[in-house]
């Protein structure tokens, strides 16, 4: 039943995105400031804008022979699941040093939902708050540098470590389910015609606690490259990240095509490690399709 409800929500949300104009103009309201506040409240316009891609992918299929990690005996995760991501940012400062730089706070959340299982549990959710500043670069050379971004971020799955908890004889101890990292990062963006390239480096900052996943950086590495190529209304992206020393990492390809205002058909292919934090050392090959609401 819940899977049909989920599909219905997607259909309604797509329809609503096309009909989102506010029809009540509050002509009867004489208080000008109250009218502005009511319009903002009714429209939901509070300065939040998309950060990473926002999507709903009702069909995701893992086509390798591996299994997702489970820390509860009753959880038998299936290869097929849904995936969703919410990612927003808000600008809170501008040009403090006279460089036309912009300051942002952002929050992203990615969830893997076993919607086709009997109890439809969320297999894993990753949380990613961050703060960053973007310095624009004016460059007319062949590289056409666009901006330099510097930020600080936290990423975790919100789970706990039960390794030291005493359980009664025969009880199952789920062990350490906690996965997290605090890190500093920098992103250089450049453009050539309709190809946008983002080069990212990051490192756990001094004092960051990696006790729950001490080998995490062996799988994520410290570098990432993102290529975004526009042709017509379509967008294809390629992402690769990894650790040169260990030879471990991942690659991802996405494609999006507009089907109506602010709604895109979205296809994603992922292969490698770190698809999610709980499975950061688990090699995953996965195909997913659905809708995105930003790019």
CATH topology heading of the largest domain: Outer membrane phospholipase (ompla), Chain C
- Helical proportion, percent range: 10-25%
**Outline:** globular
Order of helices and strands: HHEEEEEEEEHEEEEE
Uncertain residue segments: none
**Rg computed from alpha carbons, rounded to a whole number of angstroms:** 22 Å
Oligomeric state as shown: single chain
Number of domains: 2
CATH hierarchy, class of the largest domain: Mainly Beta
Q: Would you kindly provide a written description of the structure presented here, covering whatever features stand out?
A:
This protein has two domains: 1-46, no CATH class; 49-292, Phospholipase A1 (Outer membrane phospholipase (ompla), Chain C, Beta Barrel), CATH 2.40.230.10. With 295 residues, it is mainly β. 12% of the residues lie in helices and 47% in strands. The chain has helices at 2-18, 32-43, 216-220, and strands spanning 49-50, 55-62, 80-94, 102-113, 122-136, 145-156, 180-192, 195-204, 223-231, 234-243, 248-260, 263-272, 284-292. The protein has a twelve-stranded antiparallel barrel with strand order 2-3-4-5-6-7-8-9-10-11-12-13.
Give the structure's gist in a few sentences.
The protein has helices spanning 2-18, 32-43, 216-220, and strands spanning 49-50, 55-62, 80-94, 102-113, 122-136, 145-156, 180-192, 195-204, 223-231, 234-243, 248-260, 263-272, 284-292. It is mainly β.
């Amino acid at each position: 039943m819940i899977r049909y409800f989920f599909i219905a929500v997607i259909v309604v949300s797509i329809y609503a995105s096309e009909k989102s104009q506010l029809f009540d103009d509050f002509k009867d309201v004489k208080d000008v400031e109250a009218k502005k506040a009511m319009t903002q409240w009714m429209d939901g316009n509070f300065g939040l804008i998309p950060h990473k891609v926002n999507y709903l992918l009702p069909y995701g299929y893992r086509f390798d022979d591996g299994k997702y990690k489970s820390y509860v005996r009753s959880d038998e995760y299936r290869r097929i699941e849904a995936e969703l991501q919410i990612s927003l940012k808000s600008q809170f400062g501008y040009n403090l040093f006279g460089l036309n730089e912009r300051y942002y706070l952002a929050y992203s959340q990615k969830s893997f939902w076993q919607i086709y299982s009997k109890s439809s549990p969320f297999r894993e959710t990753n949380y990613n708050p961050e703060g960053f500043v973007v310095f624009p670069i004016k460059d007319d050379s062949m590289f056409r540098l666009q901006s330099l971004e510097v930020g600080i971020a936290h990423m975790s799955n919100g789970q706990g470590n039960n390794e030291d908890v005493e359980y009664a004889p025969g009880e199952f101890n789920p062990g350490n389910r906690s996965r997290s990292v605090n890190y500093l990062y920098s992103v250089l963006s450049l453009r050539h015609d309709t190809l946008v390239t983002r080069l990212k480096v990051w490192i756990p900052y001094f004092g960051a606690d990696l006790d729950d996943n001490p080998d995490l950086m062996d799988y994520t590495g410290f570098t990432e490259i993102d290529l975004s190529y526009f042709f017509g209304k379509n967008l294809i992206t390629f992402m690769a990240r990894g650790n040169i020393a260990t030879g471990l990492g991942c690659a991802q390809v996405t494609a999006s095509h507009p089907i109506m205002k602010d709604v895109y058909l979205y296809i994603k292919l992922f292969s490698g490690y770190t698809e999610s934090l709980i499975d950061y050392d688990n090699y995953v090959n996965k195909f997913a399709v659905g809708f995105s609401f930003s790019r």
